[in-house]
Amino acid sequence: MKTKIKFSIVGLLLLLAVAPVQAELYMDGFLQGLYGGRLDQNNPTATEQTASETRMQLRAEHFGDVGEFFGRIDFTYDAADSAGLEVELREAFMKFRLGSSLDVKAGRQILTWGTGDLIFINDVFAKDYRSFFVGRDDQYLKAPQTAIRTDFYAGKLGSFSFVWTPRFEPNRLPTGRKLSYFNGQGIVGEGYFFDVPTPESKFENGEFAFRYQRRLGNFTSALYFYRGFYKNPMGAVMVPMGESFMPMPVYPELAVYGASVRGPLFGGILWLEGGMFDNQDDPDGDNPLMPNSSVTGMLGFERQVATNLTANLQWQADFMMDHDKYVAEREGSGMYIRDEVRHLVTSRITRLLMDENLTLSGFVFFSPTDEDWYARVSAAYKYSDEITLTVGGNAFDGKDESTEFGQFQLNDNVYLKMTYGF
Length: 422
What we know:
Blueprint: E1 3-6, H1 9-18, E2 24-38, E3 49-63, E4 68-78, E5 84-98, E6 102-109, H2 129-132, E7 145-153, E8 159-165, E9 181-182, E10 187-188, E11 207-216, E12 219-229, E13 235-241, E14 244-250, E15 253-265, E16 268-279, E17 294-306, E18 309-320, H3 323-330, E19 341-353, E20 358-367, E21 372-382, E22 387-398, E23 413-421
Parallel strand pairs: 1-5
Antiparallel strand pairs: 2-3, 2-23, 3-4, 4-5, 5-6, 6-7, 7-8, 8-11, 9-10, 11-12, 12-15, 13-14, 15-16, 16-17, 17-18, 18-19, 19-20, 20-21, 21-22, 22-23
């Protein structure tokens, strides 16, 4: 049996560091079976199964006199993929306080901030779309990063957060084995997947993220900054290939500047968020192999519209800078040309039934400019305090196979999930 083990040396060192401290240790976890299959027979994926896995997750929390440790490790046997055991250390960090105002968290951890519901602007941390599209729990959308995070609390002045990720962590994208994708020429399966090299492991290639957060009346406001790289390999460079040159995918260097506000209004919760994505490798939009810089903004509102019924609505507008150059580069090539302003509308509806033991959920992404959409639906029944049964599905469609959701139009799937918590 092939065994693939991913672990964090930092996490292991932290565990050794806190183990001798006199403290309380809490442990729990779950055992889960997830089984899913594609619905489109024309999908060029290597397998018809989008999921066939048995997963056990163990969590441990260790509270000491000077700090705390948190660990989360997954053991997964995936019969739809490598037919082997994978062990992933998702979290292993130590957290402690220096003085009365500074918290430090170091190790393998899940990072998140921002205001959107499944729309990420200033949350430029790694995501796992392989998990998201096949029905794994929502926690698996966020991929772990090995990082150091500090939070400084300055009373009425607000708080300052800084995250340093020494080694760049990209998004986890479909590879063609279980989910097909658009590779620039068409929708392809596993044989076309290319594992794009990440930026060289040097100090200047680390990721730096900053947030300043402060309360303004009933609202929470924040300013953000990020310096690192696009999380998807959206750019390319020409490299020699024999007597000619071929484009090689790369992660372009990126800076993000943003702000957000969130708070109660009109009997619900309102949020606004915006950011500028500044491509450091092509600031003027002259290179056709690089993505153009952009400015994006989002408005969202959520409210309980009836007993045990909650709904939200989000609208995002993404403005591409130097759009005229982008159009000139693609005119006559047959390539898809997006609008200068791309619009995206999303809505989530959640309904609780049967004494809140049954949760019905639906989430829809729709872009009227790209003419594509993605829908997620699920029904989760809490059979007992330990056992939860879930059925769900994912559906995609789009007019053009190169748009954000259109490229996944052959990946419609349904799944069954059974979870035992302990």
